[in-house]
């Protein structure tokens, strides 16, 4: 609880917080892995498809991609999210549960902005990728081929992301501030 309050305070007072990614975390592969970090900023507007969101799930923080608005079977509105490294959709996320959005990430020691127009195009393409492959995975699991589709999904990302990500995301200077005791 203290960590949540500290992160909320940093976001409110400084307008951003650097949060390291937990070692061994794989849900956002190949975009994020243990040792990487995110620069989170308050979510001041409704999330757009493709944006990376920081939110609390049970007793840990999660960074997953927003795929758009959705409605629960009970008619409750929410956000559809998915970890790029997973072939299944997350449970519906209430908009008020979003703590922040990710505006930059540190991969392989360099910071890259997620805020530029080309980065937004990339993010939108990733949202479509995640939706389409999640649907394919859902269908494939019905006939016992879920593992194959999940492997193809992740394999596609592992081929495309190392080439495309640097082309669409400009390097930026190291942001100030740290939240070294926290991780997602």
Overview of the molecule:
- This protein is of the alpha+beta class and about 180 residues long.
- The chain has one domain (about 1-170): Umud Fragment, subunit A (Ribbon), CATH 2.10.109.10.
- The protein has three helices and eight strands, in the order H-E-E-E-E-E-E-E-H-H-E.
- It has helices at about 1-15, 115-140, 145-170; strands at about 15-20, 35-40, 50-55, 60-70, 75-80, 100-105, 110-115, 170.
- Strands 1, 2, 3, 4, 5, 6, 7 and 8 form an eight-stranded antiparallel sheet that branches.
- Helix 2 packs antiparallel against helix 3 (about 145-170).
- It is globular and about 50 Å long.
- Report the total helices: 3
Assign the CATH topology: Umud Fragment, subunit A
Low-confidence spans:
none
Question: How many domains would you count in the coordinates?
Answer: 1
Helix content: 25-40%
Round the Cα radius of gyration to an integer and report it: 16 Å
